[in-house]
């Protein structure tokens, strides 16, 4: 844990408690706690451990073990004055505890396309507001992925995660490494997430450019939106993404 890396522990002052946050979670903290991972807070006998951790900026979706004096505590428990709470990062791979299906918030459109490209069932609506996302995640039992910590702290969410990374490729690596969902590249429609089925060339000929019609032989069509795909229809960047994971 973080405390053992430090040469000497400073005592926790009376009237306060100390959160000691795992290095992998420190980027979520306010600036004053980011280097040391330590945050001293006024002791509030009514505040749950979960409330304290989330008020420091760390959604419980990202948290593994919570320890006080090396003893595991629940997020519902409360601290005593001068307690030190060690907050671990959630271990990876993280068991999904349900179907490997996801729901992404409005800012993760590029990640949505990449997950669908790899055959991961991913719902996305670029107009969905937070209430709608929380409701849909519950109704369809999907893992909600977001970079909005306020959204991830909603108590109604059963399965959710904060996505690390700015670039969609880094975000994809984060999600795949964290949840290890089964992959089946080229099986889903990038536009709507529907299932692709092989289709005879004659059936889609009227939807194709002459060049495509001449050079391509194998086609598939989305069962939901009717979009037609053929081998080579995806740009080089997406082909590269698939190669990285297969
Ligand atoms: Zn589709």
CATH topology (level 3) name of the largest domain: Rossmann fold
Supply the number of structural domains. 3
Average pLDDT taken over every residue: 93
Biggest sheet overview: 5 strands, mixed
Low-confidence stretches: none
Structural class: alpha/beta
Strand order, biggest sheet?
Answer: 2-1-5-3-4
Number of strands: 12
Provide the gyration radius in Å: 23 Å
Top-tier CATH class of the largest domain: Alpha Beta
Order of helices and strands: EHEHEEEEHEHEHEHEHHEEH
Query: In what range is the share of β-strand residues?
Result: 15-25%
Distinct small-molecule ligands in the complex: zinc ion
End-to-end separation in angstroms reads: 35 Å
Per CATH, the architecture of the largest domain is: 3-Layer(aba) Sandwich
Task: Assign a percent range to the helix content.
Answer: 25-40%
Give the overall shape.
elongated
* Total helical elements: 9
Blueprint of the fold:
Layout: E1 16-21, H1 31-34, E2 38-42, H2 49-55, E3 63-68, E4 71-72, E5 84-89, E6 102-104, H3 109-117, E7 122-124, H4 130-140, E8 143-146, H5 149-152, E9 160-162, H6 168-179, E10 196-199, H7 201-204, H8 210-215, E11 219-222, E12 228-230, H9 236-245
Helix pairs in contact: 3-6
Describe what you observe in this structure.
It is a single chain. This protein is α/β, with parallel strands linked by helices. It folds into three domains: 2-89, Roll (Ubiquitin-like (UB roll)); 92-184, Rossmann fold; 185-235 and 242-246. Helix content is 27%, strand content 20%. The protein contains nine helices and twelve strands. The chain has a five-stranded mixed beta sheet with strand order 2-1-5-3-4. A four-stranded parallel beta sheet has the order 7-6-8-9, with helices on both faces. Helix 3 crosses helix 6. The model has no long low-confidence stretch (mean pLDDT 93). It binds zinc ion. Zinc ion binds next to loops.
């Amino acid at each position: 844990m973080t405390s053992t890396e430090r040469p000497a522990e400073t005592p926790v002052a009376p009237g306060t408690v100390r959160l000691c946050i795992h290095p992998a979670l420190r980027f979520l903290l306010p600036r004053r706690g980011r280097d040391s991972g330590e945050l001293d807070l006024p002791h509030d006998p009514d505040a749950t451990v979960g409330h304290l951790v989330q008020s420091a900026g760390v959604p419980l979706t990202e948290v593994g073990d919570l320890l006080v004096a090396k003893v595991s505590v629940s997020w519902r428990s409360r601290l005593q004055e001068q307690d030190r709470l060690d907050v671990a990062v959630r271990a990876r791979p993280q068991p999904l505890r349900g179907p490997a299906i996801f729901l992404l918030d409005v800012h993760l459109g590029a990640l949505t396309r990449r997950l669908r490209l790899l055959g991961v069932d991913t719902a996305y609506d670029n107009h969905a507001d937070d209430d709608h996302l929380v409701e849909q995640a519950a109704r369809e039992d999907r893992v909600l992925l977001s970079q909005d910590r306020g959204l991830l702290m909603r108590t109604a969410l059963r399965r959710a995660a904060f996505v690390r990374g700015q670039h969609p490729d880094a975000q994809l690596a984060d999600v795949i490494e964290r949840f290890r969902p089964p992959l089946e590249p080229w099986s889903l429609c990038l536009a709507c997430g529907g299932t692709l089925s092989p289709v005879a060339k004659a059936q889609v000929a009227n939807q194709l450019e002459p060049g495509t019609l001449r050079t391509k032989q194998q086609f598939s069509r989305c069962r939901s939106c009717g979009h037609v795909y053929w081998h080579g229809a995806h740009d080089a960047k997406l082909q590269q993404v698939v190669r990285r994971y297969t």
